[in-house]
Target: carbonic anhydrase
Amino acid sequence: MHETVIELLNSNAEHADEFQSRFDDVQDSQRPSVVTVCCSDSRVLQDHMWGNDQPGHIFTCGNIGNRVVQRTDSGEAVSGDVLYPVEHTGTDTIVVVGHTGCGAVTATYDDLTDGLSEPAGIEHCLSLLKPRLESGVESLPSDVSRTEAINRLVEYNVDRQIEFLIESDEIPSGVDIVGVVYDFQDVYGKRRGEVHVVNVNGEIAVEKLREKHPKIDSRIRRLWEY
Model:
């Protein structure tokens, strides 16, 4: 067996020792407070980024590009990963988590600008991102660098995912939908691993968001108000 798996099992043994009693209240059911949709990038630590060590608190979903959309026989729908806790466990908050330097956004940008050849599974994922990022690519200022373009599109992608959720009949109107960007590249500041709020229920204007949410005004920041 690969040494990495052995290391994982050893770490899991420590985890099991620590968590013996933490499953007492959630062994038979769950009522998570929030569902997060993160990019499945190894640098995005889905629970640890929130300091979460409580089973049953956060329902985590992960895929490349933090997508909330899946393609079905009847058309596009809210991904079942996201919809399940809203539909069945009473979860009333959705957080869409983008991150700086996102590889899926980068690949989509490259595909839209220069064309790209990827294996079928990856191409399928990009095909769900491309129609949502195309208008963003077209709107980018001509003087931005490639890195700046990617990170602006990270925000734009979060916005489009939230837009899809808001417009979907599958998501009740009372569900709060928040968009954030996880920064480990010193793009928004010097605190690596900090989360920055970029969208709340479709609103992206920073000053309006800060006025409406004064308790978190220092955490609200955007690179691009298009």
